[in-house]
């Protein structure tokens, strides 16, 4: 976007009227004049500094970051947190009304609320810092001409009017109009989604209304040069670039709540209604029984406190935060805490092919060379490349093909290879290197005397090299283009070409001839005639073995892996079949075929397709939404700007940390720092384990809270009054329940966590049988507690409410400590190690110490209304507290037999 009368169009200035200013329909001279630049000498250093101060750095700008106060306030919007705050307010009002000034209850409640909010803010800030570090690591440099000198600067310092120098392997740091180019090709998949590099031409004339993919005289920020070289004048930087405009659109999108957020929100509302209902029932019972209004009100409040698991928000946040920390160590950066659980719910994973499922590096795997006719007819046509006994004829083919390549492969100190240039050429160079032939030595021994660079019209590349004192012409290109110009075993070669194509290999043919002298330049086309075919080279981007194993794990877990790629449908189908994604009865479909289908047709048939090839960004969104209409939870991977809308639309967006653009990372819920599909499956396993732990924690907390509710209700109905005070109930909830429930969330994922199918999207945290278990366990705890209250009040004392409450408090608290070990697993505790979770062991010991401190330390016991118990009462307390272990084990045995 530009502004009328602005020297540097694209500079933010809302006061001026905007109009569309295009660059591709202007000449470099016109653009240089507008920016007061020089096409040869570029901007002066002083002018560049002045423009930088005016237009700002060449960086993408997101939404203004939330302040610490805003982040903190956002953590307080949860329904359960609001209920806790209301409970704290009511408790404070009661303390004031009664005049005793005991504000311990509201203070503890508010402490839990604040702790929950602080933890949430801390984890979100930590994730953002790691993401910022990733951005800084990927900040590229740019080679520019300023004041007539070529120099390297940070890409953030680029300004409109700078002269860029680009070569193969360079990152394009800003939108720019080409001044001159030589065989230039750019990888623009980040913007267009097209996997094949785009041909560029500085001299091309482009119409004003030409779409982005047809602007062949422009290069764009976020793309890279795969072949050739060029000079260009920068036209747009930062948010004014094409990639910046997409980023601005994405900033306006709203984040959606995750399944866990919905489920906890729903459960919080349910518990709030239960608390209100309990208060109403207590009022009615108390009024009928003639209990004073004030006492009824206090009892109702204490029961409302018992109905709400005050520690749940903190427990869920801490469990999620621990999971996030584990996942960072496993190459998965979670940007939003609840997204961890969403991964555990994922039922469909839509993955890009290149780099995620494959190695993102073309590799030569097979060659064909002319042989004796008997061999060609009677045996396999192809020779495997990389085998220890690679035939000499194949090595010779790779040597000649390497001489006809401009791509380079550099050996790094750590033994790895850096590929620079066209991926098909670097694959050939790497294969020759593997066979013991170094490109530098070959070029030195057989110098290039002349070349005809590849262009889109001829689809061939030719070099003339001096070999053993004679001029050898080497030509490489597609078999269909080169075959009519060649003699030799063409039909046999055609069979080999078809065999490679069926195996999804990209095939390059290599031909050769010897000439006496170089022809005149205007007759150079004759070099590509009357050739001898010397072989075919087949290459592919091979699948990652770990991704193949991960796909098998997905299927075992009931997760449907889907491949979405811009590659050719034949290649995509072959890779998908090798990896187990495309199976019998499933289909592959192209973007063109998708566009002929209505949204209704796609939604009806979406389950038939496992491979989507040659798709557009719009197609990706349609695919995600079609699966979501089926009730599936969709994870989507992507790295380009074109992937960002689909990442945003998916239930869980996974961006690539290495190859991913900043826009893609900003739209995603998770960043894969190793760009590996297997990492997604690791994250799914961790997510499922985290959800299991949350379910165990919530189940334990609710069974305890329901036990407390039944305890008070049963005692009131029996005419015994409230068996526990409000502060005793609160202490049990926050200490006895809270610490062990938190430690329960630290359990390692079970070995069978990936054996079950994903949870349906509309399924709550608990199903019907689970609720029945919770209620029955609550009744068990209530029966034990009421029994201890009656024994303490009437058996071990003469109608002493204080002694009854003391025994009830101890049995309720200690029985939960024994009960939690049975709640760890669905299996019998005698068939598993009940003490495997050391955090749980420590939490239980700490809780028991706090329970005994409340009962035995006189000043503290006075605050909680506790009294001294005789030894026999302590024996009864211990006996009743241990009973949940055998009762639950008998119930498990009955359940398994049933």
UniProtKB/TrEMBL annotation:
Q: Which SUPFAM superfamilies match?
A: Calcium ATPase, transduction domain A (SSF81653), Calcium ATPase, transmembrane domain M (SSF81665), HAD-like (SSF56784), Metal cation-transporting ATPase, ATP-binding domain N (SSF81660)
Question: What EC designation does it have?
Answer: 7.2.2.10
User: Where in or outside the cell?
Assistant: Cell membrane
One annotated Gene Ontology cellular component of this protein:
plasma membrane
Domain Cation-transporting P-type ATPase N-terminal, which positions? 22-96
Question: Which membrane topology term applies here?
Answer: Multi-pass membrane protein
Enzyme class, broadest EC rank: translocase
Give the InterPro entries listed for this entry.
Answer: ATPase_P-typ_cation-transptr_C (IPR006068), ATPase_P-typ_cation-transptr_N (IPR004014), ATPase_P-typ_cyto_dom_N (IPR023299), ATPase_P-typ_P_site (IPR018303), ATPase_P-typ_TM_dom_sf (IPR023298), ATPase_P-typ_transduc_dom_A_sf (IPR008250), ATPase_P-type_domA (IPR059000), Cation_transp_ATPase_P-type (IPR050510)
Instruction: Output the Gene Ontology terms for molecular function.
Output: ATP binding; ATP hydrolysis activity; metal ion binding; P-type calcium transporter activity; P-type sodium:potassium-exchanging transporter activity
Q: Which reaction does it catalyse?
A: Ca(2+)(in) + ATP + H2O = Ca(2+)(out) + ADP + phosphate + H(+)
* Record Pfam families: Cation_ATPase, Cation_ATPase_C, Cation_ATPase_N, E1-E2_ATPase
Tell me, in one coarse class, where this protein mainly resides.
membrane
What is this protein identified as?
A: P-type Ca(2+) transporter
């Amino acid at each position: 976007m530009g502004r009328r009368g602005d020297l540097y169009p694209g500079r933010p200035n809302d006061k001026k009227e905007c109009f569309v200013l295009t660059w591709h329909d202007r000449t470099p001279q016109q653009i240089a004049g507008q920016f007061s630049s020089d096409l040869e000498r570029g901007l002066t250093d002083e002018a560049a500094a002045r423009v930088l101060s005016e237009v700002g750095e060449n960086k993408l700008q997101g939404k203004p970051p939330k302040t610490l106060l805003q982040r903190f306030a956002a953590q307080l919007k949860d329904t359960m947190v609001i209920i806790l705050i209301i409970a704290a307010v009511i408790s404070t009002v009661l303390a004031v009304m009664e005049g005793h000034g005991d504000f311990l209850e509201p203070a503890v409640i508010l402490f839990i609320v604040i702790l929950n909010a602080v933890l949430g803010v801390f984890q979100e800030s930590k994730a953002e810092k790691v993401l910022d570090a990733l951005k800084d690591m990927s900040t590229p440099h740019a080679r520019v001409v300023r004041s007539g000198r070529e120099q390297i600067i940070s890409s953030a310092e680029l300004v409109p009017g700078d002269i860029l120098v680009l070569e193969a392997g360079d990152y394009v740091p800003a939108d720019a109009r080409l001044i001159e180019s030589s065989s230039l090709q750019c990888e623009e998949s980040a913007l267009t989604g097209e996997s094949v590099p785009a041909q560029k031409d500085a001299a091309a004339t482009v119409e004003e209304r030409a779409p982005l993919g047809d602007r062949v005289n422009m290069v764009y920020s976020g793309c890279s040069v795969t072949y050739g070289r060029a000079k260009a004048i920068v036209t747009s930087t930062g948010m004014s670039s094409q990639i910046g405009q997409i980023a601005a659109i994405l900033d306006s999108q709203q984040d959606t709540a995750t399944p866990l957020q919905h489920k906890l929100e729903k459960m919080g509302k349910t518990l709030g209604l239960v608390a209100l209902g309990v208060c109403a029932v207590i009022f009615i019972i108390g009024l009928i029984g003639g209990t004073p209004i004030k006492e009824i009100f206090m009892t109702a409040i204490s029961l409302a406190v018992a109905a709400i698991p005050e520690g749940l928000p903190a427990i869920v946040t801490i469990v999620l935060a621990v999971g996030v920390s584990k996942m960072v160590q496993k190459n998965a950066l979670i940007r939003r805490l609840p997204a961890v659980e969403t991964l555990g719910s994922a039922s469909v994973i839509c993955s890009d092919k290149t780099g995620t499922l494959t190695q993102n590096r073309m590799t030569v795997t097979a060659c064909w060379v002319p042989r004796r006719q008997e061999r060609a007819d009677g045996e396999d046509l192809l020779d495997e490349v990389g085998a220890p006994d690679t035939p000499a004829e194949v090595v010779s083919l790779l040597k000649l093909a390497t001489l006809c390549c401009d791509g380079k492969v550099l050996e790094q100190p750590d033994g790895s290879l850096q590929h620079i240039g066209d991926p098909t050429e670097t694959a050939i160079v790497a294969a020759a290197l593997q066979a013991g032939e170094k490109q530098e030595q070959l070029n030195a021994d057989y110098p290039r005397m002349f070349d005809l660079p590849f262009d889109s019209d001829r689809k061939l590349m030719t070099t003339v090299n001096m070999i053993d004192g004679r001029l050898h012409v080497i030509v490489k290109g597609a078999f269909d283009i080169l075959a009519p110009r060649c003699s030799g075993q063409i039909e046999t070669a055609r069979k080999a070409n078809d065999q490679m194509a069926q195996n999804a290999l990209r095939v390059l043919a290599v031909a050769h001839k010897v000439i006496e002298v170089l022809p005149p330049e205007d007759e150079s086309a004759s070099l590509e005639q009357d050739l001898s075919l010397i072989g075919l080279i087949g290459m592919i981007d091979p699948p990652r073995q770990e991704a193949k194993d991960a796909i098998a794990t997905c299927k075992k877990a009931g997760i449907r892996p889907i491949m979405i790629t811009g590659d050719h449908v034949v290649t995509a189908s072959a890779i998908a079949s090798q990896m187990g994604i495309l199976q019998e009865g499933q289909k592959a479909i192209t973007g063109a075929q998708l566009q002929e289908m209505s949204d209704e047709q796609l939604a009806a048939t979406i389950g038939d397709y496992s491979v989507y090839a040659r798709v557009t960004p719009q197609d990706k969104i349609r695919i995600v939404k079609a699966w979501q209409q089926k009730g599936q939870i969709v994870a989507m991977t992507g790295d380009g700007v074109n992937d960002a809308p689909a990442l945003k639309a998916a239930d869980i967006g996974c961006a690539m940390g290495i190859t991913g653009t900043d826009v893609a990372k900003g739209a995603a819920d998770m960043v894969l720092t190793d760009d590996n599909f297997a990492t997604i499956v690791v994250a799914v396993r961790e997510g499922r384990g985290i959800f299991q732990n949350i379910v165990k924690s919530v189940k334990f907390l609710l069974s305890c809270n329901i036990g407390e509710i039944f305890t008070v209700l049963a005692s009131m109905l029996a005419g015994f009054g409230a068996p526990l005070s409000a502060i005793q109930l609160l202490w049990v909830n926050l200490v006895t329940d809270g610490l062990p429930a938190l430690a329960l969330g630290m359990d390692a994922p079970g070995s069978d966590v990936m054996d079950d199918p994903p949870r349906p999207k509309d399924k709550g945290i608990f199903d019907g049988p689970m609720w029945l278990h919770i209620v029955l366990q609550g009744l068990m705890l209530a029966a034990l507690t009421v029994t201890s209250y009656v024994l303490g009040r009437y058996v071990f004392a003469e109608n002493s409410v204080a002694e009854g409450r003391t025994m009830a408090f101890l049995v309720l608290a200690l029985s939960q400590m024994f009960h939690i070990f049975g709640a760890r697993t669905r299996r019998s505790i005698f068939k598993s190690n009940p003490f495997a979770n050391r955090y749980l062991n420590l939490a239980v010991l700490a809780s028991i110490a706090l329970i005994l401190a409340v009962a035995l330390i006189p000043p503290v016991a006075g605050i909680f209304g506790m009294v001294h118990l005789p030894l026999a009462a302590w024996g009864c307390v211990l006996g009743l507290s241990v009973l949940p272990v055998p009762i639950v084990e008998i119930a498990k045995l009955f359940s398994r037999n049933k």
